[in-house]
Design goal:
The complex is a heterodimer of chains A (274) and B (715).
Chain A: E1 3-14, E2 17-28, E3 32-36, H1 43-50, E4 58-63, E5 66-67, H2 73-78, E6 81-83, H3 96-104, H4 111-116, H5 124-136, H6 152-165, E7 170-174, H7 182-192, E8 201-205, H8 209-215, E9 218-223, E10 226-231, H9 233-238, H10 240-247, H11 251-273
Parallel strand pairs in A: 3-8, 3-9, 6-7, 7-8
Antiparallel strand pairs in A: 1-2, 1-4, 4-5, 9-10
Helix pairs in contact in A: 3-5, 3-6, 5-6
Chain B: H1 2-10, H2 12-32, H3 39-56, E1 58-60, H4 71-76, E2 84-86, H5 100-123, H6 131-153, E3 172-173, E4 183-184, H7 185-207, H8 209-219, H9 221-226, H10 231-253, H11 259-264, H12 266-275, H13 281-301, H14 313-332, H15 356-373, H16 377-401, H17 409-424, H18 445-467, H19 473-491, H20 494-497, E5 505-506, E6 511-512, E7 515-516, H21 529-552, H22 554-564, H23 566-571, H24 576-601, E8 604-605, H25 612-625, H26 630-639, H27 644-652, H28 658-675, H29 687-697, H30 702-714
Antiparallel strand pairs in B: 1-2, 3-4, 5-8, 6-7
Classes of the chains: A alpha/beta (274), B mainly alpha (715).
């Protein structure tokens, strides 16, 4: 089986601190891979590194068979490596549907000319893709609204829908469930596995252990920038290293509480930054 | 070599002004987080006031009388707003002039008052606005004070022998340091004054309670507020301090520079402030002195034999501040502080213009109707309006859609116009009245027009390059410096632009498809002016449709995405750099079209046409109309001085001074920034507009009147 994404010794250094320390990780094509770890473990830094938002100091990342180390963020996105953001990073001046269309349509050098004469053709294939993304995230009723008019949780779903509309080969979800209410969380959780049926692989970061353990095929655990364990959800549940580093000794009970607490925290910080 | 050394040292004179202005800009920035483009205008206005006080004993307050004294208004006998106060009696037989110290004191008090006005009327109301709103606010200050200078003092040069030591004619140091050259004595006094100002302000910040709390609020506004310091009080105090330093600089330099020019020296002051990282007073002072010295040395170098003639001395002098700004921003663009204020406002909304064709057909019909009705003067008014509209489209694309605050677009219009003239000129006299003939290539009209646009696009892309690295207010700083540099380096440049470029450059007769389309036909004595009107209507229509369609299409969506969030735009696969350059290219092409049309309209071009005030006034009215929509540009074009509305009012009431129109525009600009966030006529599509409309429709009840009060309170 081929891997859509593979990192070798990927290292990101901030000052003297290794935020990601020789991370070896692989996402097999068509699979659902999760990355978990406590706050400050370097999960978001890892996504920033492979999408080109922070420079890597060592190691390499191979996406779809090509080394992407020298690519700019937008080139990686155009190649099918599409991310979402933990904080809301929407285009506030565009309607929800336009947010998706921006990501969905490619442009050519002459697009501005055909735009000026209003000749740019509507691509039914792309439009239906956008409709599907809106539909799967339950955003049909607010497609023409402005993102700022939506509650926080639904805005996060717009971010996920925008990434879906871009036809990713691999979608990187950075804490998509943080700040969602129960109903929204269910919409998301219920559809995550469906993504795999649309020619994409999924890479998920989340604090919600329940979510990660229930949807992922394979899970990596990150702590202080290092991969400390990896395996199937069942293996991760039983791994003593993970229990020690992340879940504490009495994993069974704390696990659920931990997830809840962190989600609550996330919700607060999410609204602060709003 | 000794000449160069002496020139470098002599540069401390101009450098002292940069240093003083830079100090004030830093003070204002630390207090409020605003980079004040109008800082030099404060200095200029105070300089004028000082001279006026010395000569006539009257003080002109920084506003104008809103109630004109004519017609039925005169009979109403309303007490007008006092504008002139006679403070000193200059008929005093002994000295003939008011007391110097007292005059200085009055002037500094007035500049302090200007600082308070700026704080309470402009920057405090705009404290929650987005960057664009704040930049526009400080441009409003610049434009308003410049207009007031023109209205009250006529904008002429003033000479005053006030302080003997600072007067440039007060004697020179002969054989300076044995180098065999002379340096004006005043340069050293000015240098000393700059150092004294730097030390005083630095000590005030370092040791006083006020200074320490300002530094605290600068670093963490929220924290300072929690500790009981009112950030807004501190901001106001810093505005007063900044304005006093500006006033002092203006008074000192009155004897060296014309007051109207002092307003433009703000560019060097901005460079100095950036040198000081926008936080360090000694850094800003040193930066200002360095810029002054390098500029002076650069001018000296132009005397050398090997220096190419196409780089004139004044161009070199004005290019140095731009170079300094670009260097500083390039070297530490990412590390410059963006002062963290408590909140940053939302960008103005940019609604799509749907049903473009219906609107265009209606507008074309109206314009055609007007062009048939209008005769003589009104034809000129209509064409002025249309050209302004075309130009404002370029701002709609670049500032409205893409969010790049470029102040240099008007200079690009000028560049295109001058290039076109040079390409079309063939060394022959075009009209009997021309004083100058330009040699050139004698290209046909259409070819020269296209070539001018290409040159403008290339230049626009060059301006866009810094925008890939810096954004927001920093880009505005670079581009305002570029305006001065372009004017002196490229436009006033006889080897490049023809002999007329320093006086009046005669424009060749445009000939499109065998038809003469221009304002002044030497052969037919303007009887076919309607062709020019029609030509402009068609061009304005086409460009307007193009811009509206751009907003509806993919590129418009991408521009708005970049304006909202560059990080997320890159994540959505948008090549941000390429899109920005595309925006600069499109905008520059539109600006170039407007520039060429001005050349068609006038018998000759003067560089003044494309100087900074003209460009800022156009930006002001574009913003007033609505910076984010095509309709905003159309409304803005009708509002400019010489446009439809002021001329209409002028005919029906009394002709209105250009300065007053610009002053009203500047006030409107600030009000618009506060009330509609720059959406202007697009207001009708916003919540405020909808609420107001809904309120007007339904009979007033308790709830709606409460809303109204709320809105008034906010305003």
């Amino acid at each position: 089986m081929t891997n859509i994404l593979e990192t070798k010794d990927l290292t990101v250094t901030f000052g003297g601190l290794n935020a990601c320390d020789h991370v070896d990780l692989a996402v097999p094509t068509g699979k659902f891979v999760g990355l978990i770890g406590p706050n400050g473990a370097g999960k978001t830094t890892f996504i920033d590194a492979i999408t080109g938002y922070v420079p890597t100091s060592a190691g390499k990342a191979v996406f779809d068979g090509a080394d992407i180390g020298e690519m700019k963020p937008h080139e990686r996105a155009q190649n099918g490596l599409v991310r979402t953001f933990q904080s809301l990073e929407l285009f506030e001046d565009l309607s929800v549907r336009d947010n998706l269309l921006v990501a969905a349509y490619p442009t050519r050098w002459y697009t501005f000319i055909s735009d000026m004469f209003h000749l740019t053709k509507r691509d039914e294939d792309i439009e239906s893709r956008v409709d599907w993304a809106l539909d799967i995230m339950g955003l049909n009723d607010v497609a023409e609204s402005m993102p700022t008019d939506l509650p926080h949780g639904r805005r996060k779903l717009v971010g996920v829908a925008r990434a879906l509309a871009a036809r990713p080969k691999l979608i990187l979800l950075d804490e998509p469930a943080a700040g969602l209410d129960t109903a929204e969380s269910q919409i998301l959780g219920g559809h995550l596995r469906e993504f795999l049926n649309h020619d994409m692989s999924v890479f998920l970061i989340d604090h919600d252990m329940g979510l990660v353990l229930s949807v992922c095929d394979y899970i990596y655990v990150l702590d202080f920038g290092k991969i400390i364990a990896s395996g199937t959800p069942a293996e991760i549940r039983e791994s003593p290293a993970v229990k020690a580093a992340y879940l504490g000794e009495q994993a069974g009970e704390i696990q659920a509480q931990e997830g809840e607490r962190m989600r609550g925290q996330q919700q607060e910080t999410g609204e602060d930054s709003d | 070599m000794s000449a160069l050394l002496v020139a470098l040292i002599a540069g401390i004179g101009a450098g002292a002004l940069y240093a003083m202005l830079g100090t004030g800009i830093v003070v204002a920035f630390r207090g409020s987080g605003v980079i004040n483009f109008g800082h030099g205008a404060v200095a200029g206005y105070t300089a004028y006031s000082f001279h006026e006080l010395r000569v006539t004993g009257s003080l002109y307050l920084p506003w104008f009388d809103p109630i004109p004294e004519f017609g039925f208004l005169k009979t109403l006998k309303i007490n007008n707003l006092p504008v002139r106060i006679d403070i000193f009696d200059v008929t005093d037989p002994i000295s003939g002039k008011p007391n110097l110290a007292l005059t200085v004191l009055v002037c500094l008090l007035m500049s302090a008052f200007l600082g308070l006005l700026m704080h309470f009327l402009v920057f405090r109301p705009l404290r929650n606005s987005p960057t664009l709103g704040k930049v526009i606010g400080s441009i409003g200050v610049f434009l308003y004070l410049s207009s007031m200078m023109a209205v009250h003092f006529g904008g002429q040069n003033r000479y005053d022998a006030g302080f003997s030591g600072f007067n440039s004619t007060a004697g020179a140091v002969e054989n300076f340091l044995g180098l065999g050259r002379t340096i004006p004595r005043s340069n050293f006094y000015l240098f000393g004054a700059a150092i004294v100002m730097c030390v005083i302000v630095w000590a005030l910040y370092r040791f006083s309670r006020f200074g320490i709390s300002t530094r605290a609020a600068d670093e963490n506004e929220k924290g300072a507020a929690l500790l009981g310091y009112s950030p807004q009080f501190l901001a106001g105090a810093n505005w007063v301090l900044a304005s006093i330093t500006a006033g002092a600089a203006g008074i000192l330099f009155l004897h060296k520079t014309q007051p109207a020019q002092i307003a433009l020296f703000v560019v060097g002051g901005l460079g100095a402030a950036l040198f000081g990282n926008l936080t360090s007073i000694p850094g800003a002072t040193a930066g200002g002195l360095i810029i002054g010295m390098v500029a002076s040395g650069g001018v000296e170098i132009t005397n050398y034999d090997w220096w190419p003639e196409i780089l004139p001395p004044s161009g070199v002098r004005n290019f140095v501040p731009l170079l300094a700004i670009i260097l500083v921003l390039y070297l530490r663009g990412d590390k410059l502080p963006i002062r963290g204020s408590i909140s940053i406002g939302r960008q103005p909304r940019a609604p799509k213009t749907n049903n473009v064709s219906i609107g265009v057909i209606a507008a074309l019909g109206i314009a055609l109707l007007l062009s048939n009705i209008f005769v003589s003067k009104w034809e000129a008014v209509l064409t002025t309006t249309l050209i302004a509209i075309i130009f404002m489209y370029s701002l709609t694309v670049l500032i409205g859609f893409l969010g790049q605050i470029s102040l240099v677009q008007w200079s690009i219009s000028g560049l295109a116009a001058y290039v076109m003239i040079r390409l079309m000129a063939d060394g022959e006299k075009i009209r009997e009245t021309d004083f100058v003939t330009n040699s050139g290539w004698g290209w046909p009209t259409v070819l020269a027009f296209v070539a001018a646009i290409v040159v403008a696009i290339i230049f626009g892309l060059l301006v866009g390059l810094p925008a890939l690295r810096i954004r927001g207010v920093q880009l505005a700083v670079v581009t305002i410096a570029a305006v001065i540099a372009v004017e002196n380096l490229l436009l006033r440049n006889p080897p490049l632009m023809g002999d007329g470029s320093v006086s009046v450059n005669p424009t060749p007769s445009p000939n499109w498809f065998g038809q003469y389309v221009g304002g002044f036909n030497p052969n037919t004595a303007r009887t076919d002016y309607w062709k020019f009107s029609l030509f402009l209507i068609i061009i304005a229509g086409l460009v307007g449709v193009g811009v509206a369609n751009l907003r509806r299409g993919q590129i418009g969506r991408r521009f708005l995405a970049i304006r909202a969030n560059e990080r997320a735009a890159a994540a959505a696969g948008i090549n941000v750099a390429r899109m920005k350059l595309l925006g600069f290219g499109i905008s520059s092409a539109i600006a170039a079209i407007a520039g060429c049309m001005i050349a068609y309209k006038l018998p000759g071009l003067q560089t003044d046409q494309f100087e900074i005030f003209g460009g800022l006034a156009l930006l002001a009215f574009a913003y007033l109309g609505g910076i984010t929509t095509v309709w905003g540009a159309i409304v803005g074009g009708c509002l400019i001085a010489g446009g439809l509305l002021p001329e209409f009012l002028g005919v029906h009431f009394e002709s209105i001074d250009t300065g007053l129109i610009n002053a009203v525009g500047a006030i409107g600009l600030v009000v618009n920034a506060k009330v509609t966030n720059g959406e202007g006529v697009a207001l009708l599509q916003t919540d405020l507009g909808k609420n107001t409309l809904a309120m007007l429709r339904r009979p007033p009840d308790d709830e709606s009147s409460e809303n109204l009060n709320d809105e008034e309170a906010k305003v």
